[in-house]
Task: structure prediction
Amino acid sequence: SQTIHQWPATLVQPVGSPLSLECTVEGTSNPNLYWYRQAAGRGLQLLFYSVGIGQISSEVPQNLSASRPQDRQFILSSKKLLLSDSGFYLCAWRDDRGYEQYFGPGTRLTVT
Amino acid sequence: GIQVEQSPPDLILQEGANSTLRCNFSDSVNNLQWFHQNPWGQLINLFYIPSGTKQNGRLSATTVATERYSLLYISSSQTTDSGVYFCALYAGNNRKLIWGLGTSLGVNP
Result:
C-alpha cells in the first residue's frame, strides 16, 4: 500500500531564515505530487505541483520554491522566510492514472 | 475559471443528528472529491464521486453533474465527525484541484 510522509510535523523559524520541508511517497511510482498551504481559516492554496522528476509547475509567485530530485521526493524551500509564510503545509500525491489525491500529515510552520 | 461553493459555511449538531452538506460548481464537473479534515489537520478522502451515489457507513454522497451540485449526507452524527468538509474538483487539464472553502462541522455530545 501507498504511504506519504512529511517532516517535520511542526517548525518555528525566525524571519529571514531558510526553509526546507520534505515529502516522500512509498509504494507507487511516477506519482503526481503537490504542495498546498492552508493559512488561518480554511482555504487550501495550491503552491506547486509536479508530474515528474525535475518538472515543477508554480501556481503562486512568492517566496517559495519546490524541487523534485527523485521520483517520490518533493521538497519545498525558501531562502529567506517571511512572516506571511506561516501556515499549515500539506503534501499530496496522486496516481498518474487516477484522480484521487492523498495527503500527508502536514507541517505547521510558524515564522517569528 | 471553475468556481466551487460550499454551504453552509458552519454547522453545529447534537450527536445523533443528520446533516446535508452541499457543493455547487460553476462548470461541468470533473472528478469531484469530498474530503474531511479532522481537528488535527489530517485530510482524509471520503468519496471520489464524479456522478451518481456512493455510501460508506454513515456517510453517503450524491453528485448530479447535469445540475452542477454534489451533496454529502452524514447520518447519526458522532463527535468524531467534527472538522471541516471540503469538496474539490479538477480544472480542465485534470492536473489541479479547485477547492471549496469548506463546511466547518461541530458535533456536540
In short: The longest strand of chain A covers residues 44-52. The CA atoms of residues 64 and 78 of chain A lie 5 Å apart. Chain A has no helices and eleven strands.
